[in-house]
Amino acid sequence: MRRAAVLGTGQTEHRTRRTDVSMAGLCREAIDRALADAATGWDQIDAVVLGKAPDLFEGVMMPELFLADAIGAAGKPLLRVHTAGSVGGATGIVATSLIRAGVHRRVLAVAFEKQSESNAMWALSIQPPFSAPITAGAGGYFAPHIRSYIRRFDAPAHIGALVAVKDRRNGALNPHAHLRQPDITLDSVQRSPMLWDPIRYDETCPSSDGACALVIGDQAAAEASSNQVAWIRATAMRTEPTFYSGKDHVDPRAGSVAASALWEAAGIKRPLEEIDVAELYVPFSWFEPMWLENVGFVGQGQGWKLVESGETRIGGALPVNPSGGVLCSNPIGASGLLRFAEAAMQVMGRAGEHQVPGAATALGHAYGGGSQFFSMWVVGRQP
Amino acid sequence: MDTLAAPLTIAFDYTRSLGPVLGRFMAGLRERRVLGARTSDGRVHVPPLEYDPVTHEPVTDLVEVSPTGTVVSWTWNARPVEGQPLDRPFGWALIRLDGADTPMLHAVDASELHTGMRVRIRWTPARQGHIRDIECFEPGESDMSGSTGGEPVEIMTTPIRLHYTHTTSTEEDRYLRALEQGRIIGQRCPACRKVYVPPRVCPADGVAPDEVVEVADRGMVTTFCVVNVPFAGQRLTPPYVVAQVLLDGADIPISHLILGVEAADVRMGMRVAAVWRDRSRWSTTPENIDHFEPSGEPDAPYESYAEHL
């Protein structure tokens, strides 16, 4: 298969309310930084791929229509991608596929969310007629599945809090992060309010405005780059229904099948040993141990033990979310592409204060819907 | 027979962060001034573009154009609908304001239109720095000039209301009509033999369900969440327990409230029974079941519901 690589990445300063910019301005903050990082000009971009979560979040139907000019798509192919919370990851993969298919040489991938334009909790709680008025909110959807994980593997109650402490401290090393809390402690997390039992306030993601952009190029473009690129060694996407009888909400089949396909395509036999750093989509702390198992870093019931051992911190055997992850910044539509971009930044050696020393191979991971869509990639310093 | 249907309205007052270009444009409208964006090719775009379509650079040069312009093309709207600028028949027109190179779309309050017609902005009396400060256009030349100055507008509110009719599927309709009689029914998938409550096209096999199966109004809690947090769109006051309840005879749980017990005492595997509203209030709605509460039976063993987690 033809090779593809990330030539450059860019992201915004993620905040609760970026009232200083429009949606177009938010996207351009990320795009302009990605083009600069990739040392790529607008005239070298062949196509643009835009990702964003549900249109009800901003109340703009098909935002790709009014954004086409601002994101540089006039006169070029523009594709909109839409796979709920995983959309950022899917956006990166669609752009990669356009390169690998030999259609284009350089593609701009951009994803955003401007959550401050409405209220995602409201948008996710629309109650159609003839349904019972039983709403629990976004955390209320996932909390029962976390409870199931704890019960299935007899996980100690403090595991989620350990993840929150790690990610928030990591976020303090990331100048783009929305939440930066260097002084957070296990005790302070455990004293934070219980929102959706068993999920505490400090174990939930924030609501953010933000965007992320990548320039992805073909082999010739990558080899012409004077900077280190992130070679895209493999991508995978899988889907399953949100609900069906027998669905495993703790260990969703689409996630494990996607991961198996990913490792095989990347030629990776022992992920825990061969992957140097992982950016997993963890909107609620407990999803770190759940996804460590689902993607196959460890066996069933072993995820919480890896967390407890401290091996997912920077300096551990498998640093997870050195950027602070979704727990520190959650512009929903961009969150998946941020995971993919942060994985690329690590192997490019351009992750700044949260750089994992010597990172040569990295995983970017995203999921969305009710654990319905999964997208992931492996990037490396070498093809 | 028609299936049940009911209206659904989705409404929210969305906000728009405007950024430097549109912020100045809206501030201009408040002062009865129209600003256009001059781009690198010399053209003036109204409303302004935020980025130059040729060079992709941010637009910085905003120039004032006239509130009077010429109809470039038009169509007639004989039956206005909710949310449009006028509630009587009017014309939609592409209007190129004097000094602008691009036309903008707006409503013209006139009994007839023609291409080349001269029209002017009719301003809203109480302007607030919003696109709706332009009420519509009307025939004639403007003799007013706006005042200058004014800080850029940071945020504009744009209320949106969407009206739908939700029409039920035959399976949902059958389920609701059974609920009206105090019964809970599911339907079995002919491929995997699983009983879905409410009945639906099998999400795993993609085929329509057939056999109608009556299930019990009691079952077990598989897993649950204690909701302690208030949020937009919420219908109940926290704290409350939302549980996955696997009804006896069903192969997939439903979401419901567990009341009649302290939240801290709800357990996985707890046996629960439906508490129905008074029969006089029953209709074709799941709300006939007010909530579930403990039935007093011994807890179900973990193995009996492990595959439903």
UniProtKB/TrEMBL annotation, chain A:
Pfam families: Thiolase_C_1. PANTHER family: ACETYL-COA C-ACETYLTRANSFERASE (PTHR42870), NON-SPECIFIC LIPID-TRANSFER PROTEIN-LIKE 2 (PTHR42870:SF1). It comes from the Bacteria. CDD domains: SCP-x_thiolase. InterPro entries: Thiolase, Thiolase-like, Thiolase_C_2. Residues 252-374 form the Thiolase C-terminal domain. This is Thiolase domain-containing protein. SUPFAM superfamilies: Thiolase-like.
